[in-house]
Write a structure and sequence with these properties.
203 residues; 87% helix; 0% strand; MotA_ExbB_proton_chnl; transmembrane; membrane
Length: 203
């Protein structure tokens, strides 16, 4: 059966499911591009900061981070603030890393929401199709497969579509969760290495 015909047979509930599907791809592609850009920028500024630390030209740090994305710069600033005590430094760095993680996970809640709600949207289509079946039986005064076939078909298509959309959303959500965790861990480890280099200079 042609996809367009299948879509039409699914009834009106297919339109919100279609919107969910488009939303899944938009969010996923945008998040992948954002994570790729973050990784590239984080490595670039890490390399530049490492060069500055090794050359002991710490006065260049201010200029470097003025052109750095805030989500990266804030965490780096926590390392190079010499006025902080060890405890304050660790607390501030922890807060900055939390902010970075929050930024990396931005909009991912939408995928989670779609994954959890799509089956219920499909189920609503199922209930609607069954209600239409009983309505047709009541109006025709007859019972039989021929009378309710259209409505039952609509109900099954809606159910299947809702489950399919939810499965795709869960797959992308889990994939992005793994990528975000890996990105955040790498960023944290690189900051730790940077802090060790900086602290060795002060000894």
């Amino acid at each position: 059966m042609h996809l367009i015909e299948l879509f039409k047979q699914g009834g009106f509930i297919m339109y919100p499911l279609l919107a969910f599907s488009i939303g899944i791809w938009i969010i996923t592609i945008h998040k992948i591009l954002a994570l790729t850009k973050f990784n590239k920028e984080a490595k670039h500024y890490l390399n530049e900061a490492t060069r500055i630390v090794q050359s002991q030209k710490l006065n260049e740090m201010e200029f470097l981070y003025k052109n750095c994305p805030e989500v990266i710069a804030k965490a780096h600033y926590a390392i190079f603030d010499e006025a902080l005590s060890r405890e304050d430094y660790e607390q501030r760095l922890h807060r900055r890393l939390d902010e970075t993680n929050t930024e990396l996970k931005k909009n991912m809640w939408m995928l989670g929401t779609i994954a959890s709600s799509a089956p219920f949207v499909g189920l609503f289509g199922t209930v609607w199709g069954i209600m239409e079946s009983f309505k047709q039986i009541g109006s025709s005064g007859k019972a039989g497969f021929a009378v309710v076939a259209g409505s039952i078909s609509e109900a099954l298509i809606a159910t299947g579509s809702g489950i399919l959309v939810a499965v795709i959303a869960v797959m992308f959500y889990n994939y992005l969760n793994v990528r975000v965790s890996a990105t955040a861990k790498e960023f944290k480890n690189n900051l730790g290495d940077m802090a060790d280099q900086f602290n060795s200079l002060k000894r």
